[in-house]
UniProtKB/TrEMBL annotation:
Quaternary structure annotation from Swiss-Prot or TrEMBL: Homodimer.
Gene transcribed to yield this protein: proS
One Gene Ontology cellular component: cytosol
Species this chain originates from: Lactococcus termiticola
Taxonomic lineage from the root: Bacteria, Bacillati, Bacillota, Bacilli, Lactobacillales
Location(s), subcellular: Cytoplasm
Reactions performed catalytically: tRNA(Pro) + L-proline + ATP = L-prolyl-tRNA(Pro) + AMP + diphosphate
Main localization category: cytoplasm
Gene3D superfamilies assigned: Anticodon-binding domain, Bira Bifunctional Protein, Domain 2, YbaK/aminoacyl-tRNA synthetase-associated domain
Protein name, per record: Proline--tRNA ligase
NCBIfam families with a match to the protein in the record: PRK09194.1 (NF006625), proS_fam_II (TIGR00409)
Location of the Aminoacyl-transfer RNA synthetases class-II family profile domain: 33-502
Biological function: Catalyzes the attachment of proline to tRNA(Pro) in a two-step reaction: proline is first activated by ATP to form Pro-AMP and then transferred to the acceptor end of tRNA(Pro). As ProRS can inadvertently accommodate and process non-cognate amino acids such as alanine and cysteine, to avoid such errors it has two additional distinct editing activities against alanine. One activity is designated as 'pretransfer' editing and involves the tRNA(Pro)-independent hydrolysis of activated Ala-AMP.
Annotated GO MF terms: aminoacyl-tRNA deacylase activity; ATP binding; catalytic activity, acting on a protein; proline-tRNA ligase activity; transferase activity
Length: 618
């Protein structure tokens, strides 16, 4: 492929509006361009990477018996009304009308569509299980699109759906997808973790997320590619190393999720779902007499703790939430934070939000900061497990400016249910007791769900079982953020190239270091002077030989200065660059390995074999 025929609009400087390095490099290296907020065009280089990703996916899905199809992106709202999600999905749903004033949506996901297709075509358990998937754009009206392809309004997604007559069959397919996802992400060269996930708006109970880990910036060696003139990082002056560290830290750590995993164990979960070890040891502390005390102008945990000279861990915070239409009182230890996802899942609520203060004051007679459970009746009271082992606690008195000290469970207040509601903290013991919890940032790249009968029941999708009885179809759902993968890969494979100038100065710049399985081209042929007939003849000869061996080759045939060509080549990040320069007449070229910065001279007769050896070693 001739580079002059490609659309690769590289930029000389990093774009000022990018906040994460993947977004900056995708723009600067000419992979994508923003068409409007949150919506991107995938230019030829990006399209080639995406095609390779899709190819890997299709190979792995073939192995588990998944069959590809394509459903429309423009969907009738009627199906979403059947499932109940038309009104509950939220403001991210694109809603529109056609000329007949009928309601439609742009599909953010396709559970309803696939359920309807199967409902209308399959009536017997003998036709199950069925495992289908598609790769297509999805649409969600994000309030704040950001971080390039990581949070957009249009994005590419692989969504798969399986249909079963029993849960044993679902379990088998779920595990097949788990294995397929692990293979896909491994083949893409990603560092990732499979973690316990939240089903969220999908409606699933049992789910697993796959997260690309993004926040390790402690090892400078990981981020650098050194020019052949630099033997090791130790040769780089400390002041230059400091500048490189500043450059690294200038970019936000991509990923809106926090991964919680056990250092020294196997446990891993999203922060929204993570738990730590809980030991319900009975306390033998003497129960003191309940006493009401004035706490003027002390409303927060910190203020009450300081005013009463009591450790914050002795306080119980009382929160009031509206779950759908009901008010719920939630109790937590003063040093803990409520995990709203855990509360939502426990309640099975479609909507959860903090109650309005004026409504709380009307019901309880006190404002926020003075609420408590003592004598509280007529409310469902849910407490975190830690509250069950607290004694002689401080709670609000349901009167502004007053608190109770020495409040105790059962004697002074009651709780309807104890459940894990708190957000875990780094350093706590994992729930299985194997290792301590460590936090890392991550990008969600895949998610698998056991949906059960959530959609089949609401949409009346049934089959006849072996006894002729109509039963709801059991479902699974399996997604991969294909365009997000492109950003996740760059977050992990972006590199800073360091070189020494003839004046013994050091300079550095960002570049892409794609894994060979995904690079848009395998080899970049760069003739330094397109007017040099010997160089161009050798370029054509090498291109033909390499293509005959099955390599994807990009030829920089542009009439540009050598510096421009080399800078663009470094930016777009192909695994091997072959420079055809002054020794072209002698049949000698320079081969540069992107991943290491190493350069070697080879005769034209040795080039193909040398590339083969390098591919075997990599």
């Amino acid at each position: 492929m001739k580079q002059s025929k490609m659309l690769i609009p590289t930029l000389r400087e990093m774009p000022s509006d990018a906040q994460v390095i993947s977004h900056a490099l995708l723009l600067r290296a000419g992979y994508v361009r923003q068409v409007t907020s949150g919506i991107y065009a995938y230019l030829p280089l990006a399209q080639r990477v995406l095609s390779k990703l899709k190819g890997i996916m299709r190979e792995e899905f073939d192995e588990i018996g998944a069959v590809e199809l394509l459903a429309p992106a423009l969907l009738t709202a009627d199906l979403w009304r059947e499932s109940g999600r038309y009104d509950t999905y939220g403001e991210d749903l694109y809603k529109l009308k056609n000329r007949d004033n009928s309601d439609f949506i742009l599909g953010p996901t396709h559970e309803e569509t696939m359920t309807a297709l199967v409902r209308d075509e399959i009536t017997s358990y003998k036709k199950l299980p069925l495992n289908i998937y598609q790769i297509q754009p999805k649409y969600r009206d994000e309030k704040r699109p950001r971080y390039g392809l990581l949070r957009g309004r249009e994005f590419i997604m692989k969504d798969g759906y399986s249909f079963h007559a029993n849960y044993e069959s679902l379990d088998l397919t779920y595990n097949d997808y788990k294995r397929a996802y692990e293979n896909i992400f491994s083949r893409a060269g990603l560092t990732f973790k499979g973690i316990i996930g939240d089903g969220g708006a999908m409606g699933g109970k049992d789910s697993q997320e796959f997260m690309a880990v993004t926040d390790d910036r402690s090892d400078l060696n990981k981020w650098l590619i050194l020019d052949k003139s630099i033997a090791s990082i130790d040769e780089i002056p400390a002041s230059v190393q400091d500048d490189i560290v500043d450059e690294l830290n200038k970019w936000l750590v991509a990923g809106e999720d926090t991964i919680v995993y056990a250092e020294g164990g196997d446990y891993a979960a999203n922060l929204e779902m993570a738990a730590s070890q809980f030991e319900n040891h009975p306390s033998h502390t003497e129960l003191l007499e309940l006493e009401k005390v004035a706490t003027p102008d002390a409303k927060t945990i910190e203020e009450v703790s300081e005013f009463l000279n009591v450790d914050a861990s002795k306080l119980i915070k009382t929160l009031v939430y509206k779950a759908d239409e009901d008010l719920v009182v939630v109790l937590l230890r003063g040093t803990d934070e409520l995990n709203e996802v855990k509360l939502t899942n426990f309640l099975g609520a479609d909507f959860l939000e903090p109650a309005a203060e004026d409504e709380v004051f009307e019901k309880l007679g006190a404002h926020f900061g003075s609420l408590g459970p003592v004598g509280l009746e007529g409310f469902r009271i849910i407490a975190d497990r830690e509250v069950e082992i607290m004694n002689n606690s401080v709670v609000g008195a349901d009167e502004d400016g007053f608190h109770y000290i020495n409040a105790n469970l059962e004697r002074d207040f009651n709780v309807d249910e104890f459940v894990d509601l708190r957000t875990v903290k780094e350093g706590e013991v994992s729930p299985d007791g194997r290792g301590t919890l460590t936090f890392a940032r991550g990008i969600e790249i895949g998610h698998i769900f056991k949906l059960g009968t959530r959609y089949s029941e609401s949409m009346n999708a049934k089959v006849l079982d072996e006894n002729g009885k109509a039963i709801p179809i059991i479902m699974g759902s399996y997604g991969i953020g294909v365009s997000r993968l492109l950003s996740a890969i760059l977050e992990q494979f972006a590199r800073i190239y360091v070189e020494k100038t003839p004046k013994e100065d050091f300079k550095f710049s960002w570049s892409i270091n794609f894994p060979k399985s995904l690079a848009p081209f395998d080899i970049h042929l760069v003739p330094v002077n397109t007017k040099d007939e010997a160089a161009m003849a050798l370029t054509e000869e090498l291109e033909a030989e390499l293509k005959a061996e099955g390599y994807d080759v990009l030829v920089d045939d542009r009439n540009e200065r050598a510096g421009v060509k080399f800078a663009d080549s470094d930016l777009i990040g192909l695994p091997v660059r072959v420079t055809i320069g002054k020794k072209a007449a002698e049949g000698i070229v320079e081969l540069k390995i992107r991943a290491t910065g190493e350069t070697i001279e080879v005769n034209k007769e040795e080039l193909v074999n040398t590339v083969k050896i390098l591919n075997q070693d990599a």
